[in-house]
Amino acid sequence: MSKWSSPDSAIESEWLQALKQGDRNAFTQLYDFYWQRLFTVAYNYTRSRETAQELVQEVFMSLWVKREELVVRTNLESYLYGAIRFRLYDLLDKQKSASLYADYAAYTQTAAEETTEQQLAFAETTALIQQQIDTFPETTRQVFLLSRFEGLSVAQIAENLHLSPKAIEYHITKALRLLRLHLTDICLLLLYMGCM
């Protein structure tokens, strides 16, 4: 029997029966005959001698451990090729999963970093705007805070502060104009700090 010819079904059947009875000699013959074939299949897929050897060893180890309940529906050769293909598919699935997980981890890490940077930029912008609001004349500051932060209407603010609606509109317009003037400076500062 040449190295690459298939054993006849009678020899395979003998190996299988002896294997099920725990015959180490039969296992060795089977191992010697199929090892190189299975290694070649595994190596062609993985291009790694070490990985291919590990996969083939796993197939033979499983064959020995499960020898008593072994069910071979076609022939031993087909069973072993199916077993090595199963190991290869399993390996590829794990590699794909690991790759997807690595991509997801990188994405979430980047997203988390961006979110943190955005939160810092927002906090800094808010602080700078608040500093600007604090410089407004008292009535303008009060009107603006009631309008933009408390959500009150012009009529409600006028009633609270005992001012005319026209006066309230004047103070809101004044506050927005002052903020607009300083918004350019705030944006330039944030760009300089690398926050935008």
From TrEMBL:
One Gene Ontology MF term: DNA binding
Domain RNA polymerase sigma-70 region: 34-96
GO aspect biological process, one term: DNA-templated transcription initiation
Protein keywords: Sigma factor, Transcription, Transcription regulation
Domain RNA polymerase sigma factor 70 region 4 type, chain residue ranges per copy: 128-179
Pfam families to which the protein is assigned, alphabetical: Sigma70_r2 (PF04542), Sigma70_r4_2 (PF08281)
Entry-linked InterPro entries: RNA_pol_sigma-70-like, RNA_pol_sigma-70_dom, RNA_pol_sigma70_bacteroid, RNA_pol_sigma70_r2, RNA_pol_sigma70_r4_t2, RNA_pol_sigma_r2, RNA_pol_sigma_r3/r4-like, WH-like_DNA-bd_sf
Family indicated by similarity: Belongs to the sigma-70 factor family. ECF subfamily.
Protein name: RNA polymerase sigma-70 factor
